[in-house]
Structures are given as structure tokens and as C-alpha cells.
Amino acid sequence: MGRALNALAIALILAGLTACTGTPIVDSTSSAEFTPTTTPTPSPTSPMRGNSIDNGKCDGPDWSECVITSPEDCHPWEFAAPDDPEAVSGWKQQIAVDGGAREFAMGEPILDQGGVPVAYIVAEGDVAHVVSERFCVNLGYLNNINGVRRHGAMMLFVGDTLNLDAHTILTVGDENGVVYDNSPPSPIPPQREGLSG
User: How much is the pTM?
Assistant: First the structure.
């Protein structure tokens, strides 16, 4: 009878504790099993130039002429070849393409001489995953290339500079007015100074 009473007491305590907890917050970007996927992107809110990614323009030398026409057009997060000099921590480099300002991603892109977004100035109300969707880059990738001068891309403050270019991991970005000096990911592509094209 003592064991049954103990078991009943434990069951009642657990039921009481379960009733005290709120509804769990589910982060739709995480899962128990890692599977590189394309982050869905809303249709662009502004016209863009060039051809759709489906025709291969984003994978070759004319990648600056890409157009994001649907969520499936974004670059998947793919492993790089072991000898790829453009790899970022073993992942293929992702070239940002601006799908246009939208709610929660209203900041100002900084473009290189070719018109490619290389950095982003955070606006009030911006949310990291929406910014990553706007530029058609995986949020994990965006965190990775912003982990040296910032503590990643998740904490956004108005006026922050987010790096969008794998070649400026060491030279572009700040978080709430501070430039950090965290360890860089490895490997990273050849680096260049600042925001020059």
C-alpha cells in the first residue's frame, strides 16, 4: 500500500506541476534533426532585375542578374566541396539578393558597385528571420557570417550593421554600437576591407 500511495502522490504532484506551466513557445526555425532547407521567402514587394534563379543565373558568373520569383528560388543551405575556397564553415557561400522591403525587414541595404547587397542597416521593428528571408539567405548562414563583429544576427538594434557578404566577415558589422572581436568561423573565403565592391 505504501508504494501505491507514493506513486499516487508523485502522479498528483506531476499533474499539478504540469497544470502550472504555460503553453510552450515553439520556435518554428528549430527542429530535433538538422536538415538544410530553403527558408521560405514572400514574393518580392519591389521589381527586381534579370532572370529567375531557376535558369541557373545565380550559380554562375551572372549571379547579379537573379530574381527571386518564389520561395523555392532562394539558395538552399548546401555543403561546400572540401576544396572550395569560397566556403564558409563548410557551407556554400550565399549571395544576397534583395527581395524588397517588407514588414519586419524595412532597413536600408548597402550595395556594392555591382548592385549586390553586401550589408544592411537595421530599422525599428526588424526581425532576424524576416531580414534573412528578404535577402534570400539562410538564417544560420547569416548568423555565421555575423558572428565575429557581432554576436550573430539574432539580436537586432536600430542602426546595427548586418554583414551580408562572406568576404567581409572580419570587417563589416556592429551590434548596438559595439564592434566585437569574436573568433571567426573556419574556413572562410578570402577577406577584403570594408564595404568596397
Answer: 0.65
